[in-house]
Amino acid sequence: MLVFIGLGLTGNGITLKGLEELQKAEKAYAELYTSLIPELDLEKLESKIEKNIKVLQREDVEQNPQEVLESAKKKKVAFLVPGDPMIATTHVDLRLRAEESGIETKIIHSVSIETAAPGLAGLQSYKFGRSATLPFPDKPSETPYEVLEKNQDMGLHTLFLLDIEAEEEKYLTADQAIKTLLELENKLGRKVFTKDTLTVVVGRAGSSDSIVKGGKVKDLVEEDFGAPPQVLIVPGNLHFLEAEALEEFAKVPKEVVQENVEE
Amino acid sequence: MLVFIGLGLTGNGITLKGLEELQKAEKAYAELYTSLIPELDLEKLESKIEKNIKVLQREDVEQNPQEVLESAKKKKVAFLVPGDPMIATTHVDLRLRAEESGIETKIIHSVSIETAAPGLAGLQSYKFGRSATLPFPDKPSETPYEVLEKNQDMGLHTLFLLDIEAEEEKYLTADQAIKTLLELENKLGRKVFTKDTLTVVVGRAGSSDSIVKGGKVKDLVEEDFGAPPQVLIVPGNLHFLEAEALEEFAKVPKEVVQENVEE
Lengths: 263, 263
Known about the structure:
The structure is a homodimer.
Chain A: E1 2-6, H1 16-24, E2 27-31, H2 42-49, E3 53-56, H3 58-62, H4 66-74, E4 77-81, H5 89-100, E5 105-108, H6 113-121, E6 132-134, H7 143-153, E7 158-162, E8 164-165, E9 170-171, H8 174-188, E10 198-203, E11 211-216, H9 217-220, E12 230-234, H10 240-249, H11 254-259
Parallel strand pairs in A: 1-4, 1-5, 2-3, 2-4, 6-7
Antiparallel strand pairs in A: 7-12, 8-9, 10-11, 10-12
């Protein structure tokens, strides 16, 4: 049996149910390359469950998952992953391989940035369109710009996840992400993301020093939002309650918020 | 200080961080009317934190939040909510009222159906468009149909939450939801949701008897998916890995899956 258990966004982000399953498992693995978990203390978790947790590298999971699968054939194996499991394709792939080898699987959910970030900003999650990932500058893509454009046409909010190469300790930051979008605007020129676009940065969601900061792009682009992980939200039309929330929680100036309130 | 703490989708769905905060709180409230949490044992949670949890009714939160706000002015107060906090407008409203009265607030996130359901079905969360709620038949709305139509135009998946009136113990079930969409199809006739549309039902996500079942609408409409809560997913274009996942995890027949794979 292979149990995928979400670690959530920060230390102690695992649920009680997840901890229970981890305690019952005979072997525990973790992958920490699909995201960064601030304040995670694996040793403390190990002492709590009286078991070692073997941290796997990307290639152990994607190229050579045999060790995990072989153990899961005989034992109850826990596989810890950042956030809510199954957001990353690699976990769906591993679960499929397991089921196809006759191994029963189970998912223990946890917190995902996809609802945490909207919640922290006070934006309604049902008003988000498709989300996208902003890549590092050396892997340019026009997709994020196109996703934003379509969401804007429908008045919807857009969540941008920021690229990560955890094994090289590389994390795209919000100010770099804003520059990436401005460069796409320069290149494509469809007035989707300009210096006057209302944008919200959410940093270290769920941790004790999380930040939420919004404003016009020109007022955010030179700011330092501290340590990763960070995400970017470009709001669409705002309901008056969302507008109030952005003013209060993201410190967006009143006049900027007002420009985005839907009629 | 007012700390919003997510209870997640099922019993023991609170995170370790949430439990810690709850233990440190001097007073604890809960609202259980915005969703239904299978296997939730409030008494067990109370004995774990050695504190009573006062369950509030809808009007206590929406009309008369004074009790909560007054306590939070003097003490550290925990406010427990289903899922991930701030998905429901009512919590954003309460948080705003608190901050405007000078009360510091904090959010401790938990599992949300918005990532759990896609994960259980093996569908990629970034390929979801806007989500919508399907209402009870006595409050008809064309919005869900329109949301689905727009998502379909873009090849995106659609998550439908199902209406709930927890205080009257009324929960819309997936088979009723399918009928609602078929009636909208009958009325509007834009071939958005027909008897041949691929659909996936996720029931009791995260609980020990959760189910995931997909197929053509005509093969699902007469099925009984058991107890609430349930949600509906209408997939858009499928990546080959999503197709494999739907076959394996949602038991969708191979030929039905194949019709929806993107070229």
